[in-house]
């Protein structure tokens, strides 16, 4: 499992950059609204998402919601219900990937995220550091 501290510092640096971008549009007392998207990944997202959410909220600077995708190989009907409202958030943080034969987001969701970013929304992806403990000691993560 990745070191939480090194993962958290990477996450903090990414969100600090996002905060700097948004500094001119938010008053100091306003909290940034963050949406974490998880549900499939080649690392333990079930462990990392709650820790990321807790650490961000602990700063007092963020409110955090989580949108969890359907599980791998879910029915099309399940994916049809997965429609995050990106525009409600200052930052979209992806703790999701389809590496290793996972499912890609529906095209409509991909287009909505592209539109959100194109309209000035901030998006970042979380990737834990590669460690020997992640993949049975071979260092590939």
Query: What is the terminal-to-terminal distance?
Result: 9 Å
Give the DSSP E fraction (strand runs of 2 or more residues): 15-25%
Question: Can you say what the CATH homologous superfamily is?
Answer: Class I glutamine amidotransferase (GATase) domain
What is the average of the pLDDT values? 79
Total tally of structural domains = 1
What is the helix tally? 4
The CATH topology comes to: Rossmann fold
CATH first level: which class? Alpha Beta
Could you list the spans in which at least 5 consecutive residues all have pLDDT below 50? 131-135, 137-141
What is the number of E strands?
4
Q: Can you give a write-up of this model?
A:
The chain has 141 residues and is α/β, with parallel strands linked by helices. The chain has one domain: Rossmann fold (3-Layer(aba) Sandwich). The protein is built from 4 helices and 4 strands, in the order αβαβαβαβ. It has helices at 4-22, 45-58, 76-80, 107-118, and strands spanning 32-38, 62-68, 91-94, 122-125. Strands 2-1-3-4 form a 4-stranded parallel sheet, with helices on one face. α2 links the parallel β1 and β2. It is globular. Mean pLDDT is 79; it is low at 131-135 and 137-141.
Task: Furnish the topology, listing elements before pairings.
Blueprint: H1 4-22, E1 32-38, H2 45-58, E2 62-68, H3 76-80, E3 91-94, H4 107-118, E4 122-125
Summarize the structure.
By secondary structure, the protein is of the alpha/beta class. It is 35% helix and 16% strand. The chain has helices at residues 4-22, 45-58, 76-80, 107-118; strands spanning 32-38, 62-68, 91-94, 122-125.
């Amino acid at each position: 499992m990745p070191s939480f501290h090194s993962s958290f510092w990477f996450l903090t640096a990414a969100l600090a950059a996002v905060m700097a971008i948004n500094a001119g549009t938010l008053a100091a007392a306003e909290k940034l609204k963050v949406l974490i998207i998880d549900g499939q990944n080649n690392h333990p997202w079930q462990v990392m998402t709650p820790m990321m959410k807790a650490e961000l909220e602990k700063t007092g600077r963020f409110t955090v919601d989580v949108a969890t995708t359907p599980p791998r190989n879910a029915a099309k009907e399940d994916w049809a219900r997965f429609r995050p409202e990106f525009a409600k958030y200052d930052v979209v943080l992806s703790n999701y990937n389809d590496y290793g034969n996972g499912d890609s987001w529906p095209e409509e969701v991909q287009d909505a995220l592209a539109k959100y970013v194109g309209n000035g929304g901030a998006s970042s992806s979380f990737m834990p550091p590669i460690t020997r403990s992640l993949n049975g000691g071979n260092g590939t993560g």
